[in-house]
Amino acid sequence: MKLHVPLSCGAVDYHATMAEGDDLGETTRRLYQAAGKLRIVACVCGGEAGVNASDRLSERLMVRTNGTRGAFANRRDKKVQQELVGAAGMRAVRQAAGKTFSDVEAFLRSERYPVVLKPTDSAGTDGVKLCHNFDEAREHFEFLFEVEAVNGGYNTEVLCQEFLRGKEYVVDSVSRDGEHKTMAIWVYDKRPANGAAFVYFGMIPVDTASLEAKLLLNYTNRVLDALGMKNGASHAEVILTPTGPCLVEMNCRAQGGDGNWRPLAQALTGGYSQVEACVDAYLDKKAFHSLPKVPPSPAKAFSQEVILVSYAEGDVIGTPGTMTSKSSNHLSISKLVYLSAPRSNTPWTF
Question: For 25-48, how does the pLDDT look when each residue is reduced to its tens digit (9 = 90+)?
Answer without folding.
Answer: 999 999 999 999 999 999 998 888
